[in-house]
Amino acid sequence: MQAQEQRFREQAERQQVDMKAMLQLLTKLAQSGQVLQPATSSATPAFSPFDSTSELWKDYCSRFLTFMRAHAVADARKAQVFLTNQSSMV
Fold this sequence. Notes:
Blueprint lengths: L1 H31 L24 H14 L4 H10 L6
C-alpha cells in the first residue's frame, strides 16, 4: 500500500512539473504575440481547470484538445482559452 501511495505522489509531482512547464511555454508564446490575436466577437468557451487528484494529465490534455476541436477554437486562441480556464494554484 505504501509503495502505491509513493507512486501516486511521484506521478502527481511529475504532472505538476509538466503542467508548470506547459503553462510557462504557453505564457511565453502569448507574450511574444505568436499565439494571441485580437479578440473576436465569439465568446471564449469555458473548460474545467486541471485537477491532479481526479485525472491524469494525458487524459486532461486529450479532453482539452477534443474540446478545442469541438468548439472550433482557432489555433491562435487555444493558449488563451487554456490559460484563462486554469486555477491559480500552480
